[in-house]
Amino acid sequence: MNKQLLQLKKEFGKYGSWALWDENGRITEIIEKPEFQSLIKPSIIFVGLNASMELLNLEDWINYHGECCRFGKIKSWKQTHASKLAEALREKEFEVFAGAYMTDIVKDDNNPNSNNIAKEANLHNIELFENELNLLSKISGSDEFRIICIGNKSFDILNKITKYKIDKIWHYSAYQLGWEGVKERIRQDLREIIKKIENKIA
């Protein structure tokens, strides 16, 4: 693991992660593989608003993954909302996103009430995110990013303050369309982003 990746892990490993999952939704064993660094794509970033569970003092890189489940009341990884996004991203159609970086804008508040969190997002949160991007830029060797916001709230915040390409996908915890309906909506959004990437559209 190179110096910049180690620094990213040290500063943001408790909050960030990578779009890599095994069959049980876990990432721990993947991280330990010698080829781990060749699997990641630090120039593609999925960004949520905040984690809805306590992530401090846990292992690094487990946000959005099955390792979080044992700390809550959820019985299995497949019952978590995040698994809907993971299932889509593990499909061959969306392999361009495999290994993308994943993080949250607000890292120090796990309040599940996203409306309150969005109102409280401040300059400190944005500065942390910019520091995260700076490290990712060093790792990828590029200052160009494809940022994909998970839901409206993270999109509304970043769309006002960043110069990078920003897209948005349906939030996996939305309930209006039902479990399978949300997954299909996520797939539709990802397909649109792939078209933009292929056509080099901002």
Structure, described:
The chain is an alpha/beta fold. It has a single domain (3-199), classed as Uracil-DNA Glycosylase, subunit E, CATH 3.40.470. Helix content is 41%, strand content 14%. It is built from 8 helices and 5 strands, in the order αβααβαβααβαβα. The chain has helices at 3-12, 28-31, 36-39, 82-89, 114-120, 123-140, 152-161, 178-199, and strands at 17-18, 41-50, 100-106, 146-150, 165-169. Strands 1-3-2-4-5 form a 5-stranded mixed beta sheet, sandwiched between helices. β4, α7 and β5 (165-169) form a beta-alpha-beta unit. α1 (3-12) runs antiparallel to α6 (123-140) and α4 (82-89) packs across α8. It is globular and about 45 Å long. The N and C termini lie far apart (31 Å).
Provide a concise account of the structure shown.
The protein is an alpha/beta fold and 202 residues long. The protein has 8 helices and 5 strands; from the N terminus they run H-E-H-H-E-H-E-H-H-E-H-E-H.
Give the tags.
202 residues, alpha/beta, Uracil-DNA Glycosylase, subunit E, five-stranded mixed sheet, 8 helices, 5 strands, 41% helix
Number of domains: 1
Radius of gyration: 16 Å
Shape, per Cα inertia axes: globular
Helical amount: 40-55%
Quick check: average pLDDT?
Answer: 87
Instruction: Write the element-wise H/E pattern from the N-terminal end onward.
Output: HEHHEHEHHEHEH
| SS elements, strand count | 5
The proportion of strand residues reads: 5-15%
- Fill in the CATH topology: Uracil-DNA Glycosylase, subunit E
Number of helices, where a helix is a run of at least 4 consecutive DSSP H or I residues: 8
Query: What's the architecture in CATH terms?
Result: 3-Layer(aba) Sandwich
Structural class: alpha/beta
Distance between the termini: 31 Å
| Low-pLDDT residue intervals, each spanning 5 or more residues | none
Characterize the biggest β-sheet: 5 strands, mixed
Text of the CATH class: Alpha Beta
Placed side by side, the strands forming the largest sheet appear as: 1-3-2-4-5
